[in-house]
Amino acid sequence: MTHLRRLLTTIAGFATLVAVILASGGTHAAPIRLKDLVEFDGVRGNDLVGYGLVVGLNGTGDGLRNAPFTEEIMTNILERLGVNVTGEQFRPKNVAAVLVTASMPSFSRAGSKIDVTVSAIGDSSSLLGGTLVMTPLNAADGQIYAVAQGTIIAGGAAAEGAAAEVVQGVPTSGVIPSGARVEREIDFELSSLETLRLALREPDFTTAARIETAINRSFGKHVALMLDSGTVRLDVASTGARSPAHMLGRIENIMVEPERKARVVVDQRSGTIVMGQDVRISRVAVSQGNLTLRVQEAPVVVQPNPFAEGETVVVPRTTADLTEEEGIGLAEVAPGTSLSEVIAGLNALGVAPRDMIDILKSIKAAGALHAEFVVR
């Protein structure tokens, strides 16, 4: 009874969630700022990576026998500082080799600071309290664009005793806010561009056409041209703006109503179903039920009578039970029915969310669900 009550509560809550989502969706999508729909050509970040050394750990560093690259980088650093350790045997436990990653924002200038992420690559158990030694960060072209250094803020904790160990979070990874200083600027001159392209995050011909119309209406002349479903080209000279930056500052807050594809996304692990408002279903018949087979083994030990000859044997005893739970009967869905109406009908029949996912998958396989079906 408790399980049934919990199931009914889950179904009722899901039905309420679906109703709220559909009621708030309206019949049209809300207008969105242009900056939230497109990426501007050339205005992008760049990924950086480096290999460095963390020092000052409280005995939680790499075991140098298992991570020889840690000893190698430590030797190189000490020799650059004028300390000759050639041929010496040292086994410190407070150092760890790490990979340092960062994203260099667009138009970063020399001297500005960016955040970095530090992750252990050896067998270090924790980076808590460690300090990253000066580490150059390279881009894909092999050039050094930033240098990182600072105290690591790890996102976890670890403690251990003689017979137990407790780990919370991930202490082998951490961040250094403003931990890298930009030393080289990306060679990109926005002001020299004569044309500029807008790349849609969700390519769609209708949305691209609306963006073109909205920009041309804002300038009062034809300055934007849709090239394909994911690209709109702007003629900087025709806008009359003093620079491409001024032009982008003018158009990025233009409101555009995007057109979305009909899409259904389901998460089988949590039983979540998210759908768009344009999903439609053709005429289809649905029948659903659950078949449960239970097989239980209960072997019996049989022993001979006292003072009698014989051996103790195990006699198998098997109980098999086949039950078919009551499901929904054969139901027909009229053509042009929205998915929200189908979901409401299934909720009224008491179909659990996970069974509902199986029904939707079957409707899609039958070719009656007219939407992109994404299963996670």
What does this structure look like?
The protein is an alpha+beta fold and 376 residues long. It has 3 domains: 140 residues, no CATH class; 137 residues, no CATH class; 68 residues. The protein has 7 helices and 23 strands. The strands form 7 sheets. A 6-stranded antiparallel beta barrel has the order 3-4-5-9-7-6. Strands 2-10-12-11 form a 4-stranded antiparallel beta sheet. Helix 1 packs antiparallel against helix 6.
Care to give the gist of this entry?
The chain has seven helices and 23 strands. It has helices at residues 2-25, 68-80, 205-219, 236-239, 244-251, 339-348, 353-365, and strands at 32-33, 38-40, 46-55, 96-104, 113-120, 131-138, 144-151, 153-160, 165-182, 195-200, 224-228, 231-235, 255-256, 263-267, 272-275, 280-281, 284-297, 300-302, 313-315, 318-333, 337-338, 369-370, 372-375.
What is the topology?
Elements: H1 2-25, E1 32-33, E2 38-40, E3 46-55, H2 68-80, E4 96-104, E5 113-120, E6 131-138, E7 144-151, E8 153-160, E9 165-182, E10 195-200, H3 205-219, E11 224-228, E12 231-235, H4 236-239, H5 244-251, E13 255-256, E14 263-267, E15 272-275, E16 280-281, E17 284-297, E18 300-302, E19 313-315, E20 318-333, E21 337-338, H6 339-348, H7 353-365, E22 369-370, E23 372-375
Parallel strand pairs: 14-23
Antiparallel strand pairs: 1-13, 2-10, 3-4, 3-6, 4-5, 5-9, 6-7, 7-9, 8-9, 10-12, 11-12, 14-15, 16-21, 16-22, 17-20, 18-19
Helix pairs in contact: 1-6
InterPro entries: Flag_FlgI (IPR001782)
GO molecular function, one term: structural molecule activity
Keywords: Bacterial flagellum, Cell projection, Cilium, Flagellum, Periplasm, Signal
